[in-house]
Request: fold
Amino acid sequence: MHRARILFLLLVVATLSALLSAQGASPPRYLALGDSVTFGFLNNAGFEYVNAANFIGFPTYAGLGANMNVVNAACPGETTASFISSAGIDNGCREFRTLGAQLHVSYSSTQLDFALAFLKSHPQTRLVTVGLGADDLFLLNIACSGDLTCIQTGLATVTANMETILSDLRGTGFTGTIIVVNYYSTDYSNPIQTGIITLLNQALAAAAAQQAQLLPTCSEPFNLRLAEETHAPSAC
Reply:
């Protein structure tokens, strides 16, 4: 799992650096949106939640690697539904905020409303990443008792919500790069876990097709080459 996370970070930095260098330039703003993967994750965290700076997600490394000014608005436990609406089902984000735990950026609205206001007030923002869907999947897995057909049917809602999110982001007039960040399996030798993650990534890819780019997964050639170059084949 540790190698998978390292590979994921290397892939993000490599992808974003290539995109930004192709576009030219001075240090751009980068708006990172999403769940705990974007926010930063610590196993068995407790007192660390009093200070969001204790949590370092991939946007921090990507920002350093690609010379970007990062605004990380992610919230642990955020689903595609709660991202859009304060009444949408979530997997802990609402409780996280109610208990007074710090986010990297302070806001009282939904994450989507914050993002829309940010893009309108910062029209020179170059990049937006959206990392959502894992918490939807956790809730679906419970509701479906692990049944893959049921999960796949439920993931249609993730696709629809993500399409709404991307459309709203573009609706601000933002013409920069949007990357939908998909998810890696923590154990590629486990066909059930990897199969479920694949279904989620397919749902995200369907949403991203028209309005965003999708970060490559371990099943795609670019990531496999990176795994070979970093001598971490077991990560995929």
Observations:
- Confidence is low (pLDDT under 50) at residues 1-10, 218-236.
- The two ends are 10 Å apart (CA to CA).
- Residues 148-171 form the longest helix (24 residues).
